[in-house]
Amino acid sequence: MTTDATRFVYDAASAVDPLGDLEQEAEKAAKHNRAKVGSGRPSSLLYTYGPGSIMDLPQFTIMSTGLDDWDRIWRRRDAAPPQIHAPRLREVVRMLLRSPDVQLRPHPWQPKRLSLSTEGNDLGVPARVFPQWLRCTGCDTLGLISQFDYRNTHPFRTDLACFEHTKCTGRAGKRTGKAARRPAVPARYLLACADGHLDEFPYELWVHRGQPCSQAQHPALKMVDRTAGKGASAVIHCGACDMKRPMNEAQGEAGKTKLPRCRGRHPHLDAFEPKGCGNETRLMLVGASNLWFPATQSIIVMPESQQEKASDLADRIRTTLGEKLAKYRNNLDMIRDLLDGSLEVAHLSDEELEVAVEAAAAPTVTPEEQEEQIRDWDPVDLLVPEWRYLLKDFLGAREEDEKSGLTLSKRDRDHALQPEITRVLAVERLRKVNALVGFTRIDDMDRVGDLPRRLAPLTRTPRPAWTVATEDRGEGIFLQLDETGVAAWEERVLATSLWEAHRAAHERNFNRRFSETAANVKADSRLKPPRYWLIHTFAHVLIRELAITCGYSAASLSERLYAWPAAEGREPAAGLLICTTASDSDGTLGGLVQLSEPARLQFVVANALEKAARCSSDPVCSMRTPQDPEDFLHGAACHCCVMASETSCERANRFLERRFLIDLPGSDLGFFTLHE
Known about the structure:
The longest helix is centred in the last third of the chain and has 20 residues, at 530-549. This protein starts with 8 loop residues before the first strand and ends in a 15-residue tail after the last helix. Among the domains are: 302-364; 398-437 and 469-661, no CATH class. It is α+β, with helices and mostly antiparallel strands. The radius of gyration is 28 Å and the shape is globular. InterPro entries: DrmB, MZB. Residues 538-642 form the MrfA-like Zn-binding domain.
């Protein structure tokens, strides 16, 4: 069924409502063990196991549902759901989601004051078991979840929760004649399409080659798999007609022609595209790394300017009053009464409140203007305010802003520090806010950015009212490079054959990955400038060296790069922030900030650059240059010398080149000069 509030074919009777189901069982006086069987940290629920992804539990797998189903969790409480205050990020999220009222909310969770208390038990992320085809480990029976029993009886051993085949007689040749309970595991094959759809694999149609079984309406299937870990090695067997078909026929380019077309299913929304999809499908394993890529935006929260404060106040007035704003916009006394308790406006004069109300009542952008904004928007726009604030010359040696959570301290430069580094700040405290705007399958969002349809939605409603976000608190070190030196170096690099080789490799890579839209977009517009390669490589070698002495692992350190040439509306930038953050505590331990002290930082930088001069894969690594038909997006860089973990790198180890950092044998393009 469909309604005006949804853009998909959706049956509301099948909604995921765990707490509602529990209440129905309680009314029937049914006794069940309701022990929790899974949990995740906020960061993992945003970047790894968000809506539409598959999470591995000890005995089965689940999928987090869309945000519509999360609303049922919030509605069970009288109080309004909490919000995360980050106006600058909120405006970008609203634009990308094409919804003017989107708010940022944390995951539904509440800490317990006592370990055995029940507070917060009504909060959690709803999920459904997915895939719902299971295989018995005792007899290889392949069937839907309804053919198996769920068992979760031990209150303190939630890892034992599982689905079981209650009447398993074992495999042929090993049968005992006595039925036994055997655990069932997820059947690991799925169908995915490039537009973000995901579906169960049609095992029954597969084994019968698209036709119904000739012997039974609902035949008994088996999945025989004796070589786990070797791709699609299983064989599907029909017990009624004795037909067999191996799963490896569905692999590769040849396998695509044997698979059905996409039905347009979004299992996290329990919905289908109203007109279907029709794309080619691809065989996907449950644990595949390209099954789910989050599309996120993030900011380091900076102190708000007066303009930003006024804009935020107007927005809060608009969202708080709703339709009452138009009715009472000329009655300031009524406006004050309506806002009393929700917004502090008592300190505002009538003139200030009138200005805020007029701004709140201003018409929103039209859909056409919104699409134009999205086309013209550059992700760098989120970084520009951060860069500008980090360059401000504040009074005193320390600047602290309680509202934003940002604390900066000036650091003197050690006399031996590389002269190319002109400014050092210790970021003693920072708050980073991350928001989810959707996800993609098969390819990461930055690889399919020219195809908006590939961004899978988080809700069934066309205009979501909120999206999930996280707050991370931590510390970091900010370094600014000499802009004059960077500009001169960049001009020199642009004229070299090495840069031309990287540019050509990027064009080949772009055209192959963006085959559907490459004709409409210039590949060079997506190529990062030389200064980005330089600063990116520098950040990676610093992360490796900082991890040795700061007390944090390299995977817990991340980069934030400010690297762009001058453009309309923004000045050039050449700097970086290395930070570590945690989403489930009040902050971090200070070990990273300590390394910003002059002597320690000079030691770290000198060691990092010296180690970058050598790689255990040299001379192969130091001379690596892409040549036609190669399309890799790095040069003298590999996992032995520069590349970092996925949690540290914002570009998946692309755009790295040691020859831009320092001079290597046969190359004199290094920006930094090593001290003798």
